[in-house]
Amino acid sequence: MEIFFEEIKIESKEKYEIIDITNYIEKAIDKSKIKNGICFIFTPHATCCLIANENENYLKEDIIKKIKEEFENNWKHNLIDDNASSHLASSFIKQFLIYPIKNSKLIKGSWQNALLIELDGPRERRVIIEIIGSLK
Prior knowledge:
The protein is an alpha+beta fold and 136 residues long. The protein has three helices and eight strands. 26% of the residues lie in helices and 39% in strands.
């Protein structure tokens, strides 16, 4: 059993933004030399999240619209940081993804790219990629 660890940094430019990070994950799998296993992706932030979905502009706009509809409100936390909607959205979505790896390839559906959702940008975000598996 081998373990590969990499941390990448992603720069967001907008308050709400969806950024495809699939290519970073695929490059990490190549570097890891792991043939079969799992890839765990985690962002250590409370105001962004990760989803597996299609990287299509209208869909990304719809996702952001839905997040705003569901979570923008006059929350008590706004008295402290004015970012309660960001905290709430990330809590209900999630800050991690898990994909299987087979024959050194990320196993995902055609429309299941790894997408980071920025909820409180612009910011620099850390994304942890940990790959666990065998070299055979």
